[in-house]
Write a structure and sequence with these properties.
three-stranded parallel sheet, 133 residues, TIM Barrel
């Protein structure tokens, strides 16, 4: 029907992040993902922060949002989150997520995504690599 779903804050759904094959299946069917800026700086907890960074490293973040649903409690200032995205993914990826893709949505244009076959997780560092790495 020409509608493209955008899933808001997937990093905050522990069940989904535990079964990322489901997320990749939906992605292959056209789902786009929007992470919250606050997740990148730990505003929604360490688990959401790790998940947001994992999605970013795997090129699965298409948009960034503020999650400011009301005038009290949360604001629309996303500068800290944008800075983390810039540091982790680089200027071009930050521009794609924060400027280009949102402009495409407003213009009714298609958003190109690369096909991801699996989510690559960082290996946990052992004692010796933490000590000498």
């Amino acid at each position: 029907k020409g509608v493209v779903p955008i899933l808001a804050h997937p990093e905050r759904y522990p069940e989904l992040m535990a079964k990322t094959e489901r997320l990749l299946k939906w992605r292959k069917e056209g789902l786009l993902l929007q992470c919250n800026a606050g997740s990148f700086v730990g505003r929604f907890g360490e688990s959401a922060q790790r998940a947001a960074k994992l999605l970013l490293r795997n090129h699965l973040v298409d948009f960034i949002g503020s999650d400011a649903h009301r005038a009290v409690g949360r604001d629309t200032d996303m500068r800290e989150g944008v800075q983390v995205i810039r540091e982790l993914a680089g200027e071009a990826e930050c521009r794609r997520i924060c400027e280009e893709n949102p402009q495409r949505v407003v213009a009714g244009e298609r958003i190109e995504v690369e096909e991801i076959l699996e989510i690559v997780r960082e290996k946990k560092k052992g004692f010796w690599s933490r000590l000498f790495g």
